[in-house]
């Protein structure tokens, strides 16, 4: 069976909605809106790679500075992903949010991030030379 | 049936082989890992700080001045080390045995000397961050005979700075490993 792009879009948006639902529930059930930070972190997590990639390919091919810019993007991506994972953990660790809220916001954040990554991987058109 | 595995350069007798990691994949993963380790260090210290503010039972609290200063030093050292241009650095390091570059004739340009001095300052700041965190642990927590929960804040400080130092080393190594690869591509 061939997966059409329409199926991909519908399933990905369902997963994205589930992720947002989990995070918003984790905030609203416990009347503590701090886990909403996770959404912000995971939404801006793919940004450094995208920005630095377009920035680096706008220059010459195989320039010395290209790799430095790409490395900066990767470094920031690693930092942001770890931020999204560790913010709920340290909030729950210090009893600022509930343990259940930590698990819900962690899984919701991972779902949102995985959706964004899969979306860009599915619909990434390799450039023609 | 084993001939095909013998002819291919597999290291194992069993029919599996290690995935071939090219240099660029290794470099990419290393940079991601370095960023993750940096974040881990930062959040270890933030966790200790939140603990100090919300759950702390003792009267020793984390303040900005002694407790966050080693992190500031480490981050400054990391920025300095990783912003040095690698090509200039290779030239500077291969240009003689004398520590200050140039040699007896003094023909080394000023830029080589300044690159070495800046690199030295970067590593000194990084090492100063780690030793500063150890000294905060000793002077503020161990000398005051803090109990185990309070002591964990000082230990978290040391762990944070060690994480950031390892992250800096990995980033530096990954940026230097690329040289041969780009050379072979240029051919």
From TrEMBL, chain A:
<dbReference type="Pfam" id="PF04133">
    <property type="entry name" value="Vps55"/>
</dbReference>
<comment type="similarity">
    <text>Belongs to the OB-RGRP/VPS55 family.</text>
</comment>
<feature type="transmembrane region" description="Helical">
    <location>
        <begin position="12"/>
        <end position="45"/>
    </location>
</feature>
<keyword id="KW-1133">Transmembrane helix</keyword>
<dbReference type="InterPro" id="IPR007262">
    <property type="entry name" value="Vps55/LEPROT"/>
</dbReference>
<dbReference type="GO" id="GO:0034424">
    <property type="term" value="C:Vps55/Vps68 complex"/>
</dbReference>
<dbReference type="GO" id="GO:0032511">
    <property type="term" value="P:late endosome to vacuole transport via multivesicular body sorting pathway"/>
</dbReference>
<keyword id="KW-0812">Transmembrane</keyword>
<feature type="transmembrane region" description="Helical">
    <location>
        <begin position="72"/>
        <end position="91"/>
    </location>
</feature>
<feature type="transmembrane region" description="Helical">
    <location>
        <begin position="103"/>
        <end position="123"/>
    </location>
</feature>
<protein>
    <submittedName>
        <fullName>Vacuolar protein sorting 55</fullName>
    </submittedName>
</protein>
<keyword id="KW-0472">Membrane</keyword>
UniProtKB/TrEMBL annotation, chain B:
<keyword id="KW-0812">Transmembrane</keyword>
<feature type="transmembrane region" description="Helical">
    <location>
        <begin position="64"/>
        <end position="84"/>
    </location>
</feature>
<comment type="similarity">
    <text>Belongs to the UPF0220 family.</text>
</comment>
<dbReference type="GO" id="GO:0034424">
    <property type="term" value="C:Vps55/Vps68 complex"/>
</dbReference>
<dbReference type="GO" id="GO:0032511">
    <property type="term" value="P:late endosome to vacuole transport via multivesicular body sorting pathway"/>
</dbReference>
<keyword id="KW-1133">Transmembrane helix</keyword>
<dbReference type="GO" id="GO:0000329">
    <property type="term" value="C:fungal-type vacuole membrane"/>
</dbReference>
<protein>
    <submittedName>
        <fullName>UPF0220-domain-containing protein</fullName>
    </submittedName>
</protein>
<feature type="transmembrane region" description="Helical">
    <location>
        <begin position="151"/>
        <end position="173"/>
    </location>
</feature>
<dbReference type="InterPro" id="IPR007919">
    <property type="entry name" value="UPF0220"/>
</dbReference>
<keyword id="KW-0472">Membrane</keyword>
<feature type="transmembrane region" description="Helical">
    <location>
        <begin position="29"/>
        <end position="52"/>
    </location>
</feature>
<dbReference type="Pfam" id="PF05255">
    <property type="entry name" value="UPF0220"/>
</dbReference>
<feature type="transmembrane region" description="Helical">
    <location>
        <begin position="117"/>
        <end position="139"/>
    </location>
</feature>
């Amino acid at each position: 069976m061939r997966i059409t792009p329409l199926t991909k879009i519908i399933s990905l948006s369902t997963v994205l909605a589930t992720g947002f639902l989990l995070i918003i529930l984790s905030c609203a059930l416990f009347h503590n809106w701090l886990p909403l930070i996770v959404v912000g972190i995971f939404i801006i997590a793919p940004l450094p790679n995208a920005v630095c990639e377009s920035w680096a390919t706008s220059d010459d091919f195989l320039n010395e500075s290209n790799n430095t810019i790409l490395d900066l993007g990767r470094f920031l991506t690693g930092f942001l992903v770890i931020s999204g994972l560790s913010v709920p953990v340290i909030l729950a660790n210090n009893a600022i949010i509930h343990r259940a809220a930590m698990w819900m916001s962690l899984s919701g954040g991972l779902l949102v991030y995985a959706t964004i990554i899969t979306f860009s991987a599915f619909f990434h058109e390799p450039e023609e030379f | 049936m084993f001939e095909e595995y013998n002819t291919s350069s597999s290291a194992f007798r069993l029919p599996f082989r290690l995935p071939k990691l090219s240099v660029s994949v290794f470099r990419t993963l290393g940079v991601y890992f370095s960023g993750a380790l940096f974040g881990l260090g930062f959040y270890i210290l933030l966790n200790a700080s939140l603990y100090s503010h919300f759950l702390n039972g003792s009267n020793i609290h984390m303040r900005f001045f002694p407790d966050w200063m080693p992190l500031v030093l480490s981050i400054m050292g990391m920025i300095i080390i990783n912003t040095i241009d690698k090509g200039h650095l290779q030239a500077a390091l291969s240009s003689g045995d004398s520590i200050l570059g140039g040699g007896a004739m003094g023909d080394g340009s000023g830029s080589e000397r300044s690159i070495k001095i800046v690199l030295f300052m970067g590593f000194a700041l990084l090492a100063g961050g780690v030793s500063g965190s150890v000294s905060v642990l000793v002077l503020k927590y161990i000398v005051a005979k803090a109990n185990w929960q309070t002591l964990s804040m000082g230990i978290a400080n040391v762990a944070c700075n060690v994480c950031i130092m390892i992250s800096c080393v990995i980033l530096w190594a990954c940026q230097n490993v690329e040289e041969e690869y780009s050379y072979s591509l240029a051919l």
